[in-house]
């Protein structure tokens, strides 16, 4: 350890515990933090499809996020940023690392493009701007006039709730909910609508059953009486209905 480092530790009251050479297990907390940062940076670079030489920007962004993420090691799950600064972090500027971004170009002609597609690789700590990677120039600058792609945000309209009924204009056949007796009930009691022993099953609508009957009449050489019998069979409840 250099004399300058020892002098700095004495001035700040820092206690330094040394580890044995080639034994990272003795420094488990720091090694685990390094592993988490490296794995996070590698994951972001692969997901964004950006070159490996941007590893420093990716690791810096991971640390930036971790400092603003609540942790159980602090009281009341506070963020490290709040413990040092004394206020909650502003996360309004947070966006996906490596997302496609459009930066406004200055001093361009009236008939030329006013923006250029770039990639966001971090948030600058010294100014209220974003670190922008220019793929065609292989350089990073800090920009303010940028526009994020709408596709990067989650659209709630595209989320479908499981079990949600489809609209009336859907091409899928419409169904109705009917109550039918369970097959386990005695035959004498199946005609009684005991709601405590009924189960729910989807049955075809009357309109669809008539359509099925008409289709059967057009393709089968049997008489219309057979079609009526077929519709009556469709109306009758199934005998093997599952329980609730």
Could you walk me through the main structural features you see in this protein, from its secondary elements to its overall organization?
31% of the residues lie in helices and 17% in strands. The protein is of the alpha+beta class. It folds into 2 domains: 25-74 and 88-152, no CATH class; 175-235, no CATH class. A 5-stranded antiparallel sheet has the order 4-3-2-1-5. It has a two-stranded antiparallel sheet with strand order 6-7. Strand 3 (130-134) and strand 4 (139-143) form a beta hairpin. The radius of gyration is 34 Å and the shape is elongated. Residues 153-186, 193-203 and 214-238 have low confidence and may be disordered.
Overall structural class, as computed from helix and strand content, comes to alpha+beta
Counted by DSSP, the helix tally is 6
- Note the beta-strand portion: 15-25%
Overall average residue pLDDT:
73
Following the backbone from N to C, one meets helices and strands in this order, namely HHHHEEEEEEEHH
> What is the spatial order of strands in the main beta sheet?
4-3-2-1-5
Biggest pleated sheet = 5 strands, antiparallel
Report the strand count.
Answer: 7
Count up the domains: 2
Radius of gyration: 34 Å
The portion of residues assigned to helices is 25-40%
What's the N-to-C terminus distance?
73 Å
Low-confidence stretches: 153-186, 193-203, 214-238
